[in-house]
């Protein structure tokens, strides 16, 4: 798929390429892998939040329900976040760390391929060019502005203009509130003020 057209699909393909480059760097053993895991965690969390804000609302809006399982990514994201949580408490020079890196690479690549081979073609088929262009601009603006901040321990929050959109607490494990539920709550809280399902920059 073309990653240079500025549409939502193009911007996402570019983001996938950047994440893929990080995965390649993670696959190479070296002293920087611990730092790279932190960088990968930040980038994946920002990417997951942006997709929940722009990609999947568009899929649910324009693609027929029978054509694609728009919830499959939730399982992918949950598995990736669990691996990232395990990596955050594993020594980078251990065999367990190598095993987790391999799992992270496999899960992440499967998720990216699923979107590029199944989700994006359907979105391109059913969405008009204006919507995809507008969402591409929103996705890029979010990626440029949203910050990933460290909290106590190895936790992180994804913040966008004062809104905490995602609070990642790896120590909670299975007790953590599902990410999709947290984001839906944020969107529901906005619904009375702004009927659009897409979060945009403040005027």
TrEMBL record:
<protein>
    <submittedName>
        <fullName>Hemerythrin domain-containing protein</fullName>
    </submittedName>
</protein>
<dbReference type="InterPro" id="IPR012312">
    <property type="entry name" value="Hemerythrin-like"/>
</dbReference>
<dbReference type="Pfam" id="PF01814">
    <property type="entry name" value="Hemerythrin"/>
</dbReference>
<feature type="domain" description="Hemerythrin-like">
    <location>
        <begin position="9"/>
        <end position="123"/>
    </location>
</feature>
């Amino acid at each position: 798929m073309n990653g240079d057209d500025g549409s939502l699909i193009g911007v996402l393909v570019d983001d996938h390429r950047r994440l893929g480059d990080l995965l390649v760097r993670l696959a190479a053993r070296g002293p920087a892998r611990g730092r790279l895991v932190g960088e990968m965690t930040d980038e994946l969390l920002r990417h997951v939040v942006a997709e929940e804000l722009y990609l999947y609302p568009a899929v649910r809006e324009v693609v027929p329900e029978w054509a694609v399982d728009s919830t499959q990514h939730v399982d992918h994201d949950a598995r990736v976040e669990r691996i990232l949580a395990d990596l955050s408490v594993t020594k980078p020079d251990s065999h367990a760390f190598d095993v987790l890196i391999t799992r992270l690479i496999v899960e992440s690549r499967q998720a990216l391929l699923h979107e590029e081979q199944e989700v994006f073609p359907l979105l391109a088929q059913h969405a008009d060019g204006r919507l995809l262009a507008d969402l591409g601009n929103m996705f890029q603006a979010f990626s440029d502005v949203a910050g990933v901040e460290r909290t106590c321990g190895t936790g992180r929050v994804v913040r966008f203009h004062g809104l905490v959109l995602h609070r990642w607490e790896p120590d909670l494990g299975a007790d953590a509130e599902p990410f999709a539920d947290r984001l839906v709550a944020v969107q529901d809280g906005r619904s009375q003020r702004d009927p659009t399902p897409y979060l945009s920059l403040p005027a």
